[in-house]
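Hi V.,

Quick status before I head out on leave. The structure for the redesign project is tokenized and pasted below; the design run finished overnight.
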């Protein structure tokens, strides 16, 4: 057989079992969780801070983006802020919850990349919405 070491569990378990060079031992390791939960929470906090910074971009964009003055863009600005905040909140909280309850290492790794995608998506959606509403209201 093979050299001593950790190998896929021959009993069909999801983890690995230790082969001592002669026989399988009782030592079993469960499958890895990919990204640890604490790291996901720290990454979530970083993404929330980025979302707050992005909110000020959206605020400034709506405050100074209308040629007709602030009064002509109030409806566009308020809708834009609400859409941005909703996409960020629902997206980030949903992804964090999904990743923490998931047993899949792949899901946890994917969430690390999807959180920034939520922020970028929120900025793109809110910017497009703002310009669409501002031109419609003008």
């Amino acid at each position: 057989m093979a050299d001593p070491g950790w190998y896929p569990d021959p009993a069909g378990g999801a983890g690995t079992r230790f082969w001592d060079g002669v026989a399988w031992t009782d030592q079993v390791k469960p499958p890895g969780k990919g990204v640890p939960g604490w790291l996901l929470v720290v990454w979530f906090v970083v993404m929330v801070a980025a979302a707050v910074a992005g909110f000020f971009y959206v605020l400034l964009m709506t405050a100074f983006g209308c040629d007709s003055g602030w009064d002509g863009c109030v409806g566009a600005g308020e809708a834009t802020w609400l859409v941005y905040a909703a996409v960020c909140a629902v997206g980030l909280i949903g992804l964090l919850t999904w990743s923490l309850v998931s047993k899949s290492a792949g899901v946890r790794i994917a969430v690390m990349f999807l959180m920034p995608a939520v922020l970028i998506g929120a900025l793109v959606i809110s910017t497009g919405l703002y310009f669409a509403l501002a031109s419609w209201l003008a």
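Above is the designed sequence. The chain has two domains: 1-31, 37-137.

G. will cover questions while I'm gone.

Best,
W.
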